[in-house]
Amino acid sequence: MFLKKTLVTISVLGSIVFILTLFSEEFGLCSLTNQPCQETFDPIAEASVIFVPALIFSSILYFGTKELFDLWAKVSFPFIVISLIAVFLAPEYSRDWMYPIEKGGIAFFMSSIFVVVSIIIIAFKYFSLKRGK
């Protein structure tokens, strides 16, 4: 139960950070700094986009079985950490026209992979639990 509450709380806080940094101009956060909003808040928003699908899956699985949530949590927690590190280490702008690797692309790719892997894990464990009953 502690793991469920912890992951849901982390997902909620990460999603709030994503929303605040994505709409920083609308929330008035830009007046706090002298730099343009894109330079300050866009890298944070790009890194925290992974928390939105994490919030959706953790909220759905919160009411599911413990085995299903535990398996998903074992995979999702390290994946989120690796995703955050990958986005922060990615260059802001790509100088290569053939293989453009930048923060936004890495964030989208990691979030997409996270959704696909989560769906596969949930479906596999759900059907294996159904067969076991």
Q: Any key phrases for this structure?
A:
133 residues; single chain; mainly alpha
Task: Give the % helix.
Answer: over 70%
Termini, distance in Å?
A: 23 Å
Shape: flat
Q: Can you summarize the main beta sheet?
A: none
User: Helix-strand pattern, N to C?
Assistant: HHHHHH
Would you count the extended β strands for me?
0
Rg of Cα set: 17 Å
Low-pLDDT stretches are: none
Could you report the average pLDDT, rounded to the nearest whole number?
83
Number of domains: 1
Percent strand equals under 5%
* Total DSSP helices: 6
SS-based structural class?
mainly alpha
Description:
The chain is mostly helical and 133 residues long. It has one domain. The chain has six helices and no strands. The chain has helices at 2-22, 24-27, 37-48, 51-62, 66-89, 103-132. The mean pLDDT is 83.
Topology:
Elements lengths: L1 H21 L1 H4 L9 H12 L2 H12 L3 H24 L13 H30 L1
Helix pairs in contact: 1-3, 1-4, 3-5, 3-6, 4-5, 5-6
Summarize the structure.
The protein is an all-alpha fold. It contains 6 helices and no strands. The chain has one domain (about 1-130).
